[in-house]
Amino acid sequence: MKTLLLTSAVALAASGAVADEIRVLNWQGYGTDLDWAVDAFAEATGHTVVHEYFNSEQEMLTKLRTNPGAYDVVMINAAFTPQAISEELISPIDTATLENFAGIPASFAEDPKLNADGQTYGVPWTWGLTSFAINTEAWDDTPTSILALWDEAHAGRVSIRDDAVEAMQLGALATGQDINDIRDLDAAAAKIAELLPNLRTFWSSENDWNQFMAAGELDAATYWSGSASRSAALGLPVQFVIPEEGAVGWLDGLSIPATSEHKDAALQFIDHMIDPDFYVKWDAEGAPASANAEAADALPDDAFNKAVLGDPEVAARVHFQAPIDDETREKYLEVWQGLKASQ
Amino acid sequence: MAEITAPEDRRRLVTLLSPAYLWLTLAVFLPLSAMLFFSFLTDLPQDAPDWGFTLENYLSFGESEVYATLLWKSLKLGVTVTFFCILIGYPCALVLARTIKGRARETLFLLVILPFWSNSLVRIFSWAIVLRGNGVLERGLEAVLPWDIRLNLMFTTHAVVIGLVHSYLPYVILTSYLALQAIDDDIVDAARSMGASTLTILRRLLLPLSLPGLLAGAVLVFVPVVGSFMEPRILGGRHGTYYGTVIEDQFVAVYNWPLGAALSFVLLAVVLLILGLSTPILRRART
């Protein structure tokens, strides 16, 4: 009996050392929590994955600040990574240990937002565009201008996300301004004020967006490219539009919280996430563009992420989002709250 | 209290009351004091080592018109919702307490408090399903009425009011019911024997005697509705920005706890002020 107990205790201890449970913080339904991917990871490494979700980048930062040790991998929009670095919320990553890191082109890998003091804090994972998507049944021709959202023919059937930065950048694009340096904020705000009466509601999550589209409540709504391909894969009549005014580009990276207690397992998980094999399968279900060039090359030629986002003419219209300092962010929020309050 | 002088009585009083006061201290007083403390800070101590004290958070309420506009909008919402809760709830309580007897009363009473057994978020999402375009309500009406129905209720202020009235109606019914039930039947019989009409009995007897219950219900509705944020957000769409949603944004979206706490205390002060000012008026109305 004693030996039996002892051996089971030893076995437990041994398996505990090898198999960790890692906790991942991400948007819900955003790649890392795909059942088959988590299962494949568990099979390959023995580590199990538990997810926790956030609904805004600020909530994600709040969770990192207030729950030390609770997370091992966190998905951070690169525009927020410098803030996470400066608050010492995430730790440097030894990219040499990541087998698939070599496939990531220097333009992403050396992005100054993800690197500080010669150390990498975020592994470029996916990128995509914030623009808008239409319900193809509600439009005769696919619109080419962002001003389609202002179209009176679709009044009351348009939605944007309840997000101050996205709203101001939308106003900037519509008034022909630089999204990273909005000189005439009043003009952008005035343009958004014109848009608000056209809105049905604000959407806050991808699930929200899909439900509104499925219920036929919306004709057009701002959206993210990866989410659009996911919604289309669900069978919704959705088409993503990259208008002539351009679209906001974003880069998402995977980081390891400074307080993580399973850093090795976390590294393995990140490596698994940038693996081309994983990405090709994910893309079939609807995924944003991969930051790993080898993964993008492995896609079939007609895939949106290869055919459209790989098109140099489209790439020229992408304005990548730079980090936003607190002062600007608060200014945007103030303007946005003022606009909403006057409804 | 003055009668209690014997030491054993006092000891018993302390023992009996201490759990309640301990609970109040832990669950109400301490969190509220923490929030009050936060509202005077520049940054949260756990985030910024160089935090300090400031009045800036309270001053920003006055600096920007947005907060005052939204507070006014929320107060109007509170008054509207309270009005409809009383309009629907008081007659319900009246019928329940004075007309229906026996088994039926128990069943109806159970039905009134039944919504309380489900989560409020579930109730609000149910309303979203009912109210939305081509939803349960529109389809139901279309099945009955021959012409095309377009209610367009979802994402309007009406939807917010409907959702909130449904959520808070049981408070008014419960408090009014208890007050109405306590009225002695003999008083009503006496009034009737002296020739008072039903309307006179209601106006001169039932209403004044049940007023404390009705007012308690009204306060129970008004206070949470003014600070509500979940219902406006889900049902209100672009019209759903209220004082409560702005406070929620400060805590959840922009992580400005000090400002969020300060805005909450401004709300608390305004609500207390309203209740304080209305007490003498209502007391005079009762006598």
Automatic annotation (TrEMBL), chain A:
Keywords: Periplasm, Signal, Transport. It comes from the Bacteria. Its main location: periplasm. One of its GO terms (biological process) is polyamine transport. The lineage of its organism: Bacteria, Pseudomonadati, Pseudomonadota, Alphaproteobacteria, Rhodobacterales. It comes from Roseivivax isoporae LMG 25204. The keyword Signal applies. Residues 1-19 form the signal peptide. One of its GO terms (cellular component) is periplasmic space. One of its GO terms (molecular function) is polyamine binding. SUPFAM superfamilies: Periplasmic binding protein-like II. This is Spermidine/putrescine ABC transporter substrate-binding protein. It is found in: Periplasm. Pfam families: SBP_bac_8.
Automatic annotation (TrEMBL), chain B:
SUPFAM superfamilies: MetI-like. One of its GO terms (cellular component) is plasma membrane. Residues 71-278 form the ABC transmembrane type-1 domain. The chain crosses the membrane at residues 20-41, 77-96, 108-131, 151-180, 201-223, 259-282. Signal peptide: none annotated. It is a multi-pass membrane protein. CDD domains: TM_PBP2 (cd06261). Keywords: Cell membrane, Membrane, Transmembrane, Transmembrane helix, Transport. The keyword Calcium does not apply. One of its GO terms (biological process) is transmembrane transport. Coiled coil: none annotated. Its main location: membrane. InterPro entries: MetI-like, MetI-like_sf. It is found in: Cell membrane. Belongs to the binding-protein-dependent transport system permease family. CysTW subfamily. This is Peptide ABC transporter permease. It comes from Roseivivax isoporae LMG 25204.
